[in-house]
Amino acid sequence: MDTARGELLEERIRIATPRPATPRALARVIGRIARHFDWKGPIGCAVPAVVKDGCLRTAANISGTWIGVDATALFAVATKCRVGVINDADAAGYAEMHFGAGRRRRGLVIMVTLGTGIGTALFIDGYLVPNTELGHLTLRGRDAEKWAAASVREEGGLSWTAWTRRLDAYLHLMHGYFWPDLFIIGGGISRKADRFLPLLTVPTPVVPAKLKNDAGIIGAALAYAPARARRKPRKTPR
Ligand code: BGC
């Protein structure tokens, strides 16, 4: 990653998630990725869980064996590199705030990633409040992500209108609690924003993410890049 520009420097590789996705099996995959790029520098990793001091603390959509695991140490051994681990929605939000839809946006911005679950990242004047698990707010008597995530639309065969009503109810719930200045909608579904954005009634402005599938990768790298690599290069003096 070129963290000053927010661009991938090489083609991304995709390796199927091992089953079962235990910490040890995942560490092997991450080791393979580092070797593929012949990488010796710092690595940022995004995971779908609360991360405190490098350890995973929740496992809503991943194997329970991850809880309590020091992923930073595990991945550092597997890659022989310095590793930082961050929540996946926080990573995606971080990238959007730097290079995407949240650029130069002040006030309270909430990024919502819609996929298997619902991830959230909350920013105040550009500063991240990490590990907000707002996808687990209770909505219609259940965990909001079990009712309104993008996967629910696909698996339940819901029409865009029916699913958007759910998303709208979820955004209204958050609006009532936080009164944000902006919602950024991320996840694969943001590519089809024209199908659902016009149907939303929540009073907060809602925009689609700009970085699409690369947001998590860009944000994780950015969060753990040395400060000097994050700066934009100055124009060459004449
Ligand atoms: C997890 C979050 C994660 C989100 C998106 C939720 O189930 O609890 O930590 O950010 O899914 O992957």
Write a brief caption for the model.
This protein has 238 residues and is α/β, with parallel strands linked by helices. The protein has helices at residues 23-36, 71-79, 88-99, 144-148, 150-156, 160-178, 193-196, 215-223, 227-230; strands spanning 43-47, 51-52, 55-56, 83-87, 108-114, 118-124, 127-129, 138-139, 142-143, 182-186, 206-208. The protein is built from 9 helices and 11 strands.
3D shape: globular
Rg, alpha carbons: 18 Å
Mean pLDDT, to the nearest integer, reads: 94
- Overall structural domain count: 2
Assigned CATH superfamily of the largest domain: ATPase, nucleotide binding domain
Walk across the major sheet and give the strand order: 7-6-5-10-11
H/I helix tally: 9
Q: What's the CATH architecture name of the largest domain?
A: 2-Layer Sandwich
Task: Please bin the fraction of helical residues.
Answer: 25-40%
Structure commentary:
It is a single chain. This protein is of the alpha/beta class and 238 residues long. The protein has two domains: 1-100 and 212-233, ATPase, nucleotide binding domain (Nucleotidyltransferase, domain 5, 2-Layer Sandwich); 105-209, Nucleotidyltransferase, domain 5 (2-Layer Sandwich), CATH 3.30.420.40. Helix content is 35%, strand content 18%. The chain has helices at residues 23-36, 71-79, 88-99, 144-148, 150-156, 160-178, 193-196, 215-223, 227-230, and strands at 43-47, 51-52, 55-56, 83-87, 108-114, 118-124, 127-129, 138-139, 142-143, 182-186, 206-208. The protein has a five-stranded mixed sheet with strand order 7-6-5-10-11. A two-stranded parallel ribbon has the order 1-4. It has a two-stranded antiparallel sheet with strand order 2-3. The longest helix has 19 residues, at 160-178. The chain is globular. It binds beta-D-glucopyranose. Beta-D-glucopyranose binds at residues 48-50, 58, 60-61, 87-89, 113, 115, 117, 119, 133, 135, 145.
